[in-house]
Amino acid sequence: MLRNYKKFFLITCLAGLTACGKYLDRPVPDHAIGKDQLTDQDIALLMRGAYLSMSGSWPPQSYPMTDIYSDDIVSLQGGNPAQFNPQAYEACNPSPGDGFGIGRYYIAAYTAIGNANFILEKIGNSASPALRQLRGEALVVRAHSYNLLAELHGGVVLITSVETEIDNIRRPKSTEAEVLDQVEKDLEAAIPLLTGFTTPKAASKQTAQLLLARVCLQRGKHAKAKELAEAVITSGVRSLSSGTFSGIFRYNSTAREMLWQMSDGPMPSAYERYGLFSFYSPAPPFLGNGTGLTSMDDALAASYEAGDTRLQVMRKARQAATGREVTYMLKFSTDTLQPASAVYCMYPLIRISEAYLISAEAAARQHTVELERFNELRIARNASVKTAADFANAAAFLAEIEKERRRELAGEGRRWQDMKRFGSAEPFLTSKGRNATRLYFPFTNAELLRNPKLKQNPEY
Fold it and tell me: Confidence band (pLDDT; 50, 70, 90) for 81?
């Protein structure tokens, strides 16, 4: 957190000018440029660098943390407590010494925030349509990063301008409410600046609307959440896929569900051993060459109806460590879902299906059972439709929505926040021998040393 923003700028330039191709396209200029040499034409390239910085040095490291922490994913995999130990997340007891999981997540978020702040300051209030679009994208990157930090840690240090003095960067954390207020403010400002969806590689108007709907739902602003979700659905820029589910997660997919994604690659020659696919896949002789120690929760796996297209990204196999047959999740597979010529893995940040679930949930939280959007999603997944007679009241419908969100978004980083919202997080923590202090993750020891004004979350 205490990196000088000149360093943030250097990271941005290096990422934007020499390494963007790893996750997006591949411009390869033959020299770097300094801050004073930047022109408006360079901002687009800097924005690509900001997108790249969101993923951190190894995206798969921190992407699944909260899913293992939740009841969706079960991991028996151990490791050095300072180098991403899944068993610690499984036990809901992450270590402040974990610089690889929590640490990389934290640093990636603040690097993206620093890059976004630099871009926003450089653009200012330009009237240029191209720069207005880039300003909107930078606001979305900052909002998304702060929202992730708030989900993980609660209150965090809030910086919304370029700071180069270390004493200005070393500051106490803001409250979670203050951070989320800024997230909402950024997304509200971004929406009128952004154009409609053109690619999942960059933020669009619909991305900002659905991210804001997500935040509003979590904060109890149900009418606004529903309005935003409906605006995304009715825009028609993305739509649910019928018949295929695995295709959504393929590189350059023709499926129209992704609104925003991270792209990890190009893969090394042993691409089948790379990224989250190897983490989630069965052990050899399955091609993923994973450890076979991380699988789906049995109750979740059993909740899918026969014929549900979401079963396309699941595989039952015997787990050597336990001798049981378990269900493995292959959403992030390269070799079983796409040909070897496709050398990128896709990690969703937000998909259109979440809009359907938010719309249904927001209505139910206003004591109304609205089945239209809920059933549209289930029909697309080849699951049975529900009728009003299936639910005694809105509370019963909410319980079913929680189950549907688990089925739809498993492994995509949403479950722990859902458990907080639906009231299932604290009972789950009790079952693990923990208490409400474990609703949030700790700050790493390294960050506490960098910023003496940053106070650790309780009981870590």
Answer: low
In the numeric block, the tokens 């992450």 are attached to 94
Q: How many residues does the chain have?
A: 460
Contact predicate 50/115, CB 8 Å:
yes
CA distances from 146 to 53, 431, 452 (A): 14, 30, 21
Query: pLDDT of 245-262, one tens digit each?
Result: 998 988 778 899 999 998
- CA–CA separation, 429 vs 131, rounded Å? 46
* Residue partners of 428: CB distance under 8 A and separation at least 6: 70, 71, 92, 419
Pairing of strands 325-329, 73-75: unpaired
State the CB neighbour count (10 A cutoff) for residue 20.
Answer: 20
Q: How far is residue 50 from each of residues 38, 113, 164, 171, 385, measured CA to CA in Å?
A: 15, 8, 18, 24, 42
Q: Which of 21-35, 137-151, 334-348 has the highest mean pLDDT?
A: 137-151
pLDDT band of 10, cuts 50, 70, 90: very low
* Chain segment 173-195, per-residue pLDDT in tens: 999 999 999 999 999 999 999 99
CA Rg, the chain, in Å? Answer: 21
Contact 313, 304 (CB under 8 A): no
Which percentage of the chain shows pLDDT scores above 70?
A: 86
Task: Name every residue whose Cβ is closer than 8 Å to that of residue 219 and which is 6 or more positions away in sequence.
Answer: 180
Q: Which has the closest alpha carbon to 160: 116, 196, 217, 214?
A: 116
Q: Quick check: pTM over 0.85?
A: yes
pLDDT band at 268; cut points 50, 70, 90:
low
- All structural domains of the chain with their residue ranges: 5-194+423-450, 246-252+261-346
CATH numeric code, 5-194+423-450: 1.25.40.390
Residue 177: count of CB within 10 angstroms of its CB: 12
